[in-house]
Amino acid sequence: MIRIFNRYLPIRDTVYFILENAAILLFLMWSTTKGSGWPNLILVPLVFQVCLYYNELHPSFPRFSLKEFWVKHLQAILLAGGILFAIYLILPGEVASGRFWKRLVLFPFILIGLRLGYQALVAMRRWETPILIIGSGQVATLLMETLIRYRNLGYRPIQFKWDLGAPDKLGEEWEKLGDILGVNQVRKVVIALNDRRRQLPVEALLNLRVQGVEVVEGVSFYEQISGKILVRPLRPSSLIFSEGFNRMSIMRVAKRALDILLASIGLILSLPIFLILGMLIKLDSRGPIFYRQERVGEKGKTFMVIKFRSMRQDAERATGPVWASENDPRVTRLGRMMRLLRLDEIPQMINVLKGEMSFVGPRPERPVFVDQLRKKIPYYDLRFTVKPGLTGWAQIKYQYGSTEEDALEKLQYDLYYIKHLSPFFDMTIVMETVQVILGGKGAR
User: Which of 215, 235, 241, 405 has the highest Cβ tally under 10 A?
Assistant: First the structure.
C-alpha cells in the first residue's frame, strides 16, 4: 500500500495510473503540432481523468460486467470530448489542429485497450503479493475477510493460526511457519494475535525482520486497507503512540481558510437553489422553509444546525427523537428528493461560515443520541475533538446510520479521519462527496 494525501492506495493501481497517464502524454505529444499544442498536455489528461473518476472508472476499477464497462467508458469519453470541444472554442489561437482532432479519435480505443489489458492481468492474479496473517481471533478474521473480498488490494492472504499450547511446541510451530513462508515466498507478515504478551513469537519475528520480511501489526494494517480504525479491540496505547493526530496551528488555519472559501463559493452558487427550493417547500407542505435543530459540535458544545425542511411539520410530536429510517414516513415528497441529492444540507454552509461546523468532519449528532452512544461505544467522545462537517469520511464510506451498530461503524471511519486530518485529505473527501451525490448513494 502507498500513502497519498493520508489515504492508502494499492501500489499496483497507483503504478498503473501513472503509466496510463504517461501513455496519454506520449499520445498527445505525437498528436499535436510543434509549439502550439502544449495546453493539450494539461487539458486532455485532466478532463478525461475527471470524467472517468465520476463514472467510477478510477483505479481500483469496480467489478463491472463487460457491458457496464463499455457503456461507462463511452459515457465518460463522450462527456470528456464535449467538455474539450467547448474549452477549445473559448481558448484563443490554434491550440487544437485538424491533425489533433483526427488522431484524438484513436484515443478512446487506446484508453479502453490499456484498461482491458490491465484488468486481464489482474484477473490472472500474477501481481498479487502473498501475505501471511498470524492469528485466529477477531482481527485476524476481519483481515482475511477483507482481503478475500477486496482482491483489488493486490494481496493473496494466507492464515497461520499460531498455537503455543505448551512451551515445547515452539520449535514445531516455528518449523510450520518457516515452511509456509518458504513455499509461498511471503515478504509481508501481519501479527493479529489475541494475547501478544503470551503468544508473540518475538525471536522468530525478529529473525524474519532481519531477513527483509516486513512485519506489521494487525490493527494498524486493517486501518490501512479499510480506511477505518477498529474500536472494539483497540488499546489506548495504540492511539497514544501511533503517528497522526497532528494539530499544528498552520493546519488549523489552512483548514479554516478552506472552509470559508468553499462555503462562500457554495452559498453564492446556490442562491438560485435557495429561491427555487423555498417556493417548492411552501407549495409541497405546511411549515417553514428552514428548520433549526440542536446538534453537538466541537468540544461537546451545542449549536443550532440550519437545514431546508424535508419532513412534515411537528414530525416527532408523537414519537419524540428517533433515528431516520429508510423510506421514513415523516419525510415529504419534496424532502425525499432533496435528501437524495443532499440539497437539504446546503444551508449548513451558513454554520460553516459561523465557525460552528467545518466543510469536512464527523456528522453532527443530536444531544439525545450522543448521550446514549457515549455510554455504549468506546472512544465516542474523540469525535468531538474536531468540528462536525457538512460532509465527511464516514458519510462517503458508509450509508446513513440508524442503529448503534451503524454509529460504531461510522465512528471507526471518523477516528481514521481525525487521526489523518489534513487539508489535502479534506479536498479528496469533497471530490468523492460529489461522486456520492451524483450516484444518489446513502441518503435517507
Answer: 215
Instruction: State whether 216 and 288 are in the same domain.
Output: no
pLDDT category of residue 311 using cuts at 50, 70 and 90: confident
Collapsed DSSP state (helix, strand, coil) of residue 292: strand
State the total domains in the chain. Answer: 3
d(CA 367, CA 361): 17
Largest pairwise CA distance in the chain: 81
14 burial level (CB within 10 Å; 0-12, 13-18, 19+): middle
Task: Indicate if 99 and 177 belong to the same structural domain.
Answer: no
The residue whose grid cell reads 489528461 is 45
Same domain, 167 and 56: no
Per-residue confidence band for 171, with pLDDT thresholds at 50, 70 and 90: low
Residue 31 and residue 174 in one domain: no
Contacts for 8-16 with beta carbons within 8 Å, 24 or more apart? 8/224, 8/225, 8/227, 10/59, 10/60, 10/152, 10/153, 10/154, 11/154, 12/122, 12/127, 12/154, 13/59, 13/60, 13/152, 13/154, 14/59, 16/59, 16/118
Mean pLDDT is highest, among 24-38, 93-107, 204-218, 377-391, for: 377-391
Q: Determine the distance from the C-alpha atom of residue 186 to the mean position of all C-alpha atoms in its chain, rounded to a whole number.
A: 29
Q: Is 165 exposed, middle or buried (0-12, 13-18, 19+ CB in 10 A)?
A: exposed
Asked if residue 269 and residue 214 are part of one domain, the reply reads no
Are 257 and 392 contained in the same domain?
A: yes
Q: Tell whether 244 is covered by a domain.
A: no
| CA–CA dist 247, 154 (Å, integer) | 33
Together in a domain, 211 and 165: yes
Instruction: DSSP letter for 331, please.
Output: B
For residue 242, is it within any domain? no
Beta-bridge mates of residue 155: 129
Q: Which residue has the higher pLDDT, 353 or 235?
A: 353
Q: Is 211 exposed, middle or buried (0-12, 13-18, 19+ CB in 10 A)?
A: exposed
Sorting pLDDT into bands at 50, 70 and 90, what band is 35?
low
Q: Tell me the average pLDDT across 69-74.
A: 86
State which residues form the domain around 7: 2-123
Cβ partners under 8 Å of residue 122, min gap 6? 12, 151, 152
The per-residue pLDDT for range 210-252, each reduced to its tens digit, is 888 888 888 889 999 999 998 877 777 777 766 767 777 788 8
- Residues 258-268: pLDDT tens digits? 899 989 999 99
Is residue 234 situated within a structural domain? no
C-alpha cell of residue 397: 464510506
Q: Sort 376 into a burial class: Cβ within 10 Å, 0-12 / 13-18 / 19+.
A: exposed
80 lies in the same domain as 167: no
